[in-house]
Amino acid sequence: MNNTGIESGPPVEALPDHVPAPPAPRDQPVVPDPAGPVTDSAGPVPDSCPGGTETSGDAESPGLGRFLARAAAVTAGLTVAGALLGLVRDQAIAHLFGASGASDAFLIAWTVPEMAATVLIEDGMALLLVPAFSHALARRAAGTGEKKDAAARTTEGTDDPVRELISATLPRLFALLSCIAALLALGAPWVVGILAPGLSDPRLAVDCTRLTSVTVLTFGLTGYLSAALRAHRSFLPPAGVYLAYNVGIIGMTFALHSLWGVRAAAAGVAVGSVLMILTQLPAFVRLVPARVARAGRERRPSARRRFAGAAPPLLGATVLAPVVIFVVSRQAQVLVERFLASSLPAGAISHLNYAQKVAQMPMVLSLMICTVTFPVVARAMANGDREKARDRVERDLALAGMVVLAGTAMVLGYAPQIVEVLFQRGAFDADDTRATADVMRVYALGLLGHSLVGALSRPYFSAGRPTWFPVFAMATGLIVTTGAGFAMTHRFGVNGIATANAIGISTAAMLLLMGLGTRVVAIRVRSVTLSLVRLAGAATVAGTAGWLAAPRVADPLLSLAAGCFLVPLLFLLAGLALRAPEVVQLLTLIRRRLLHGR
Question: What's a Pfam family this protein contains (predicted)?
């Protein structure tokens, strides 16, 4: 269920979350953090520190730590801004088209960019190309010296490893994705027939799918530029791509909806995807030199021996295939939901979509924590420090659980008020609000599972070797979702689909949690589970209280404002009463800051 306004965002995966990890042994490629090191420079990524001793994250200068914190804050701000603009986009579509056959047609067509974003921008492309560019940068540094002025290397010559990598990969990628996009446009009727066979009139969905099919190419180029920039330690342009994307959708929708109807929104997806490329292109041209000087590029003998026969890391399918299949199978839950909902009355797909968009926000916020700390886990794993990795993973799971369960309590208590404030206007009426709020409350039951799947997958893929267990866990969850969906959709409608989603993703999360200790990091599963159970108890108390209190205030905006104070307060008090360690630590930290100012 990766269907947020961030297109998940970076989606969520697009935070500047690193200190560069040390290299793996030559026979074991490491799966790095997709984001790459954070800086404004285009400096190379060294394989190790001088003297052959790997640097430690604890040994970094305070200045670097402050810089990383500022960079993380700025990029997180852009991520949140992209999510908020995505919410404005959804409000615009709801206002103009409501929950109708037209909005269903657009959402079916939107399945294409959703899948493309997951594979081509967020996970697959990044995990393939960030290490490849980093390897090329290291070869460049070995041949020219790390401190050589970049201007001296940008005159004549063609033997720059970065340029060689671009020449070898970008034209082929462009040709491949162009062919796929063209085939998708030509086969749009067939694609719509598979995604939503229950549509009575699929022509509008076919038109929209043809417009959105271009994102296979544009998202692929966006992901390529993002990977190159992150490897060059430039993070702000990649973080701003979803702002540009949503600006394109909103602008085209309002400008042309009276002429093209919902096709204007589909055209906006195409225009927004082009803006994503243009957002990064100037930085890419500036950081990646067109030509490299031959003069002064005599390689040191040690460097020549060092890179002789070294294969570019992660350019094969051995490590990439499990990652791509995992993210595609996770996104496939949306395909299952829309397939099942296409046989229900018009508007069902829209109700599911609006409910997901809002209910997922706590999950997105919880995964920001894990995204920022992911390089710490990867670095500890590369250093063989399993104890440090275990402690970090356990803390991440607890913190992510606390954030997502607090948000779950808010969704359970105030779903009708949230939907009414955000969407009830124009073509989106009170009946749509009630239906969407009901689905949103059911979806909330699976938010912890979604958050845990996102958090637990990172340690698996930071182990530096191919691993298929996350694919097995996600495939099992998908089978459960599909079976439960077919069993419950006819009787319970969209609520049955949402219930199946919650059951399936929770199954996948349980398998990942149980398998992590034996395959990657020996976390204390019993302790983590007990902590999450206590937090779930606190969320139940706070959510129930909000459910009972919300109708007592007639104005939805005032009721929601009161809930934003009531639910978190009750969550903390209930967590304290249940002795949830994370709540106790949070309250202790708050008290210390208030009393001592530190």
Answer: MurJ
Q: What is the mean pLDDT of the chain?
A: 76
Nearest to 291 by CA among 155, 149, 150, 144: 155
Global pTM reads 0.66
pLDDT at residue 316 tops 90: no
Q: What is the SS3 assignment for 16?
A: coil
Point out the least confidently predicted range of 64-73, 217-226, 517-526, 533-542: 64-73
Q: How many Å apart are CA 457 and CA 390, to the nearest integer?
A: 14
Q: Which tokens in the block code for residue 394?
A: 């356990």
Q: Please report, to the nearest 10 degrees, the dihedral formed by the alpha carbons of residues 85, 74, 2, 341 taken in order.
A: -10
Instruction: Please spell the DSSP secondary structure of 319-385, one letter per residue.
Output: HHHHHHHHHHHHHHHHHHHHHHHTTSPTTHHHHHHHHHHHHTHHHHHHHHHHHHHHHHHHHHHHTT-
Q: Give 75: exposed, middle or buried? Use CB within 10 Å, 0-12, 13-18, 19+.
A: buried
Q: Could you count the other beta carbons within 10 Å of the beta carbon of residue 564?
A: 13
The per-residue pLDDT for range 505-520, each reduced to its tens digit, is 999 999 998 888 777 7
Structure confidence at residue 76 (pLDDT): 64
**DSSP letter for each residue of 111-167:** HHHHHHIIIIIISHHHHHHHHHHHHHHHHHHHHH-TTS-GGGGSSS-S--HHHHHHH
Sole residue written with tokens 């978190």: 568
CA distance 593 to 554: 37
- Domain segments of the chain: what residues? 60-311, 316-525
Q: What is the dihedral of CA 409, 413, 414, 415, to 10 degrees?
A: 80
Structure tokens at 182: 């063209």
- What is the Cα 578 distance to its own chain's centre? 32
Q: Which of 173, 149, 134, 160 is nearest to 47 (CA)?
A: 134
CA distances, 366 to each of 360, 452, 485, 561 (Å): 10, 9, 27, 22
Between 279 and 334, the higher pLDDT residue: 279
Sort residue 337 into left (φ over 0), alpha (ψ -120 to 50) or beta.
alpha
Average pLDDT over residues 456-460: 80
CA atoms within 13 A on the CB side of 331: 26
| CB-facing half-sphere around the CA of 318: CA atoms within 13 A | 12
Give the separation between CA 402 and CA 533, rounded to whole angstroms: 11
Which residues, including other chains, have CB under 8 Å from residue 392's CB and lie 6 or more apart?
A: 373, 376, 377, 380
The torsion region of residue 399 among left (phi > 0), alpha (psi -120 to 50) and beta comes to alpha
Distance between CA 230 and CA 246 in Å, rounded?
A: 22
| pLDDT (average), residues 59-87 | 61
**265 falls in which pLDDT band (50, 70, 90)?**
very high
Give the span between the Cα atoms of 427 and 63, in whole angstroms: 53
CA distances in angstroms from 565 to 252, 259, 556, 572, 593, listed in the order given: 37, 44, 15, 11, 20
Helical pair 556-577 and 386-423, crossing angle rounded to 10 deg: 150
